[in-house]
Amino acid sequence: MESTKLGQWLKLNLLVILLVLLKAEADFVPTTIVQNAVAKGAVCLDGSPPAYNFDKGYGKGSNSWLVHMEGGGWCHNVTNCLGRMTTRLGSSKQMNKTLAFSGILNDKKQFNPDFYNWNRIKIRYCDGSSFTGDVEAVDPVTKLHFRGARIFEAVMEELLAKGMKKAQNAILSGCSAGGLTSLLHCDRFRALLPKGSNVKCISDAGYFINAKDISGAPHFEEYFNQIVTLHGSVKNLPGSCTSKLKPELCFFPQNFVSQITTPIFVVNSPIDSYQIKNILAPDADDWKNCKLDITKCTPAQLNQVQGFRKEFLRALAPIGNSSSVGTFIDSCYLHCQTELQEFWLFNGSPLLANTTIAKSVADWFYDRRPFHQIDCPYPCNPTCHTHVNQDAEL
């Protein structure tokens, strides 16, 4: 018993030390407030101006741009959105003056060998709609603004003026709700940049699937319906999808991804911890231990998790397997990997075909080799590990 406790103590403290070291390696980048966006109506939920963090590229990376969309879930009703107004997810007034860049945004060659000297930008997320909302009217009582699509346009306009209009290479990426953004806005991003430039998009943990929960209810479809309706998102969803399906269905990548013409790369787990917690078993009290720690799932619960994996892979099929598309689908029980150094590129990072996420993405982007890898079912991959509270927010 004592040896078990000692082992657990050592494991926990080694994890803490690792996280401290990784944080020390991160680059802290100042926050830029886009003051002139207010005149365009491009504002956060509370009416404050949008923001981004920008670390300027240099050397061979001077004309290459990596634009990363911050995640943070969505707000689906007035009460939920009001709650976000007093946080960084609804107001630039609540954002820190600096932000740590790591993983795909890291400025050190040993941790990010292919993108470290690019112009690296993180667009802050304060609208709650994956940058799709656009409602002109502002309720005089709540003072809520639903202007996510305008934020996207205003920040892109500023980045173009800062040199992105001359980009030779460009990536639109994002994690979770930001990963969904990178898919929804991928072709729009490509259209902003010079013809002949190498432009691609990366979605990390943003491939949310339309699956029923364990009770058989379409919980997440109803949730997406509330988001799209509240934010007036329909006009900013792919028209090729909304002309055939209900708007909320066009918030699910499986229903529009085949129509994206720009090359895309999907990093995701088919047992993504957020999706298991919120799509498969959102209100199940008896799933509490399982959702917090997959090793504590009962055999019956684990069987349902594996069933969700099969649904995810079916929903992923429309992405196809052309060389312009890349996939890194590991079976790790986690959420978001590209902007966390321990998952992107570090000792012990998740591997598929003996390849890290960082190398697979770079090989695909530079056309060095195609990368299509789908992991075997959990728990077969010994390189998988979890990260404490790493999916607390999308």
What does this structure look like?
The chain contains twelve helices and ten strands. By secondary structure, the chain is of the alpha/beta class. It has a single domain (29-374), classed as 3-Layer(aba) Sandwich (Rossmann fold). A ten-stranded mixed sheet has the order 4-1-2-5-3-6-7-8-9-10, sandwiched between helices. The protein starts with a helix and ends in a 20-residue tail after the last strand. The model is unreliable at 1-24 and 388-394 (pLDDT under 50). It is an enzyme of class 3 (hydrolase). Keywords: Cell wall, Cell wall biogenesis/degradation, Hydrolase, Secreted, Signal. Its EC number is 3.1.1.-. Belongs to the pectinacetylesterase family. This is Pectin acetylesterase.
In short:
One of its GO terms (biological process) is cell wall organization. With 394 residues, the protein is of the alpha/beta class. It is 31% helix and 13% strand.
Span between termini: 37 Å
Which term fits the overall shape? Answer: globular
How many structural units, i.e. domains?
Answer: 1
In the CATH hierarchy, what is the class? Alpha Beta
Instruction: Give the C-alpha Rg.
Output: 20 Å
Tell me what portion of residues adopts beta-strand conformation: 5-15%
CATH architect. name: 3-Layer(aba) Sandwich
| Main beta-sheet strand count, sense and barrel state | 10 strands, mixed
Total helices: the number is 12
Percent range of helical residues? 25-40%
Low-pLDDT stretches are 1-24, 388-394
Order of helices and strands: HEEEHEEHEHHEHHEHHHEHHE
Signal peptide: 1-26
Family: Belongs to the pectinacetylesterase family.
Protein name: Pectin acetylesterase
Pfam families: PAE (PF03283)
